[in-house]
């Protein structure tokens, strides 16, 4: 009987590993010539289940220690090619836990990693150096449910299992102003490289959902991110001071921006000085009360070389939002957004230099951001209330702003464009663009 059980476990391990590899291979679209994120998937040398470390998936037992033991075992074992931690079908209640390098966290079909709502069991960690304090409150911040720092070669994937933050208790504290520290993310990876996140549902995060910060070589593909539209600050995916990031083929419906690129906050982000760069985003669908795609407002380390295409948003606050403020410093440059469909939005587009607060009174209001080279093209929208706003800063004019083939329609009429402290070009824009964007001074940038 023991031998039979060993054979069954070995067969299950082999099957799970085969599924993991198959799910991480490029989708069928790649075979048809459609561009996808590059993702090299190694075969893991070992397989283990969280159930083997005392985990119980009954939705009642707390599995924080079981996850910690499993990850520690992976770290000690150092199997050739790394190891896969298998989470079987069931509801695995847990507090926050860390990942390790050369590891795959694999959620089987029907598996739910569910966050405990006992907020006292969430550890506090230091603020990020590019923020200087918790994003919501001074001091430290709560550790994310799934966390990693300084890791390499990490995959979070599966058969569309769910990572459930049970965020309502945190949202209530935020609304009642009883939060002692900044709320936790659902997933945060810090200073990590070679990361793939795919085929997982992220649900009801206490704060931002997926937050790679100071990371490089990150692929996020085929994920679903869900939270109620009235849940505060539940951003979907926020790459932050990170490079070589690819986000694609995902559905996001949350209470804040669906995707927002960041790079630190005021004097702390300026001092840290790490930009977000080399970011590709494509084939994203979703809905939310704020922005579908955003840059900012925390951009003090700079954001550059961003390519975004094939967005399909409905019921939005703003379709595309580029936002910064005096005191931010940094730069936003070489941003291209194209092939966008909007169905319902308060604003089709906003590029604004007066958005977002400051961490403390020590910021320098003379540190002005540079916004240069933002192209928005091939946008079609219906049920749009206000076409857009492009509003720079008097002493830092936003330059080379290009609108090309942007058609926004409403009911009886769409509110007109509003512009100031901006230069650039506009071609084939409906409703008629503002005068600042119809001058010929920088039209060559737009036509190119």
Automatic annotation (TrEMBL):
Signal sequence extent: 1-31
GO molecular function, one term: polygalacturonase activity
UniProt cross-references to SMART domains, sorted A to Z: PbH1
GO terms, biological process: carbohydrate metabolic process
Keywords for this protein: Glycosidase, Hydrolase, Signal
Cross-referenced SUPFAM superfamilies: Pectin lyase-like (SSF51126)
Protein name in the entry: Pectate lyase superfamily protein domain-containing protein
Organism: Oryza glumipatula
Lineage, top ranks: Eukaryota, Viridiplantae, Streptophyta, Embryophyta, Tracheophyta
